[in-house]
């Protein structure tokens, strides 16, 4: 399982990648934009779950 620092880096890098792809494609419905956005959603959900576990300890 990833720790919060690793997840933070993954979120940052994926968000940066998503912004670059959006600038290149100029279409929010492009398959690559959607796939990268979904990947970011997964990382954000994992980060949120880690945060919840940390708070509940």
From TrEMBL:
Gene Ontology BP term (one): regulation of sporulation
Gene3D superfamilies xrefs: Helix-loop-helix DNA-binding domain
Molecular functions per Gene Ontology: protein dimerization activity
InterPro entries, per database record: HLH_DNA-bd_sf (IPR036638), Spo0E-like (IPR018540), Spo0E-like_sf (IPR037208)
Transmembrane segments: none
Extent of the signal sequence: none
Lineage: superkingdom: Bacteria
SUPFAM superfamilies: BAS1536-like
Name of the protein this chain belongs to: Spo0E like sporulation regulatory protein
Protein species of origin: Clostridium saccharobutylicum
């Amino acid at each position: 399982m990833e720790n919060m620092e690793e997840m933070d880096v993954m979120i940052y890098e994926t968000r940066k990648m998503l912004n670059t792809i959006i600038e290149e494609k100029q279409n929010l419905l492009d398959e690559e934009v959607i796939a990268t956005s979904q990947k970011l959603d997964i990382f954000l959900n994992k980060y949120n779950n880690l945060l919840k576990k940390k708070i509940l300890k």
